[in-house]
Design brief:
mainly alpha; two-stranded antiparallel sheet; 4 strands; globular
């Protein structure tokens, strides 16, 4: 039961954070300065000078809602604290694979602790954005390695091995995206892929939880074995294991397609909202005036100051 609760917690934390970053990246991309124009108000190329940022505050007035504007960052810190504590202190595998599993848990705890330090640095000592993304790529790579080691510690007949191997693949995709963003911070697609991969990891955590610990979703021919400290879900026959692996592959394909659809909807909806509401304003027969964005290395107060200037400017022009 505790494992299922943690997987549900990871799903809520990762999916919500990935979706929030996905929306924020798209809004920043659309609000960035544009060097091109179009005869159609909705068809202009935008954000030629957009630079990736590791954190986007909520779009609220800085002088009245300082705490609420940075609520996503505080929630991320809280979730990371819980995740580090669970992996470091409350994960105690038993059986012959105990040593290997303990190593993978500690490896995951180290990667999550690095994420915790990066989130805290935004509040205390802001680092350059490229450094943050480079360290995030390292942390994602550690998570990928931890999941791979965990998968290797299980027998092939155990479903946990398949679930962890797919989780390792998603973390590797996140590490690759973060590395590309660190090298090319103006590449909008890479930052979008990073946000989407985080949301996908959340969905896969949910799928792992129900596939391993909910009887109604355990593949046919597989069953749970209660250990002293943990629960294993195994398939007795090779045919049942192959069928279960195919079902998990299908579930991963469905989740990936769902994330792609969500990403397309977010981008299309944000584009429509920006061009219909005038947040990206057209002047002089084709040029666009965009709301200013904060620098990639700015502190929280810098973000508040810049976004407040944009708010005052739009009010004056209205």
């Amino acid at each position: 039961m505790a494992d299922l609760v943690y997987h549900a917690f990871a799903f809520v934390a990762l999916f919500s954070h990935g979706l929030y970053h996905l929306i924020s990246v798209t809004r920043a991309h659309l609000a960035g300065p544009s060097s091109s124009s179009s005869t159609s108000g909705r068809g202009a190329a935008v954000a030629a000078d957009h630079t990736a940022r590791p954190y986007y505050p909520l779009a609220l007035a800085a002088h009245r809602h300082h705490l609420l504007r940075h609520l996503p960052l505080y929630l991320a810190l809280l979730c990371l604290l819980v995740a580090v504590a669970v992996h470091a202190f409350f994960s105690s595998p038993d059986g012959a694979r105990a040593a290997a599993q303990c190593f993978s848990y500690l490896e995951s705890a180290a990667a999550l602790f690095l994420f915790l330090l990066l989130a805290a640095s935004i509040l205390i000592l802001p680092l350059p954005a490229d450094v943050v993304f480079l360290l995030a790529a390292l942390a994602f790579a550690l998570l990928s390695a931890a999941s791979a080691h965990s998968a290797a510690g299980y027998q092939q007949s155990e479903l946990q091995s398949k679930c962890d191997s797919i989780s390792s693949l998603v973390s590797a995709a996140s590490a690759t995206s973060a590395l590309i963003v660190a090298i090319a911070p103006r590449l909008f697609v890479a930052e979008l892929a990073l946000a989407a991969s985080i949301a996908l990891q959340g969905l896969w955590s949910f799928q792992t939880g129900i596939s391993l610990y909910v009887d109604a979703f355990i593949p046919e021919g597989c069953h749970q074995i209660l250990g002293v400290l943990d629960i294993s879900t195994i398939c007795d026959l090779d045919s049942s294991r192959h069928r279960a692996d195919a079902l998990l592959d299908l579930a991963f394909t469905v989740h990936s397609t769902l994330i792609a659809i969500i990403t397309s909807i977010v981008y299309a909806t944000s584009t429509r909202a920006y061009y219909s509401s005038g947040l990206v304003r057209r002047h002089n027969g084709g040029s666009y005036e965009a709301l200013p964005a904060s620098s990639s290395t700015g502190t929280l107060s810098d973000m508040d100051h810049i976004q407040m200037k944009a708010f005052c400017k739009s009010s004056t022009q209205a």
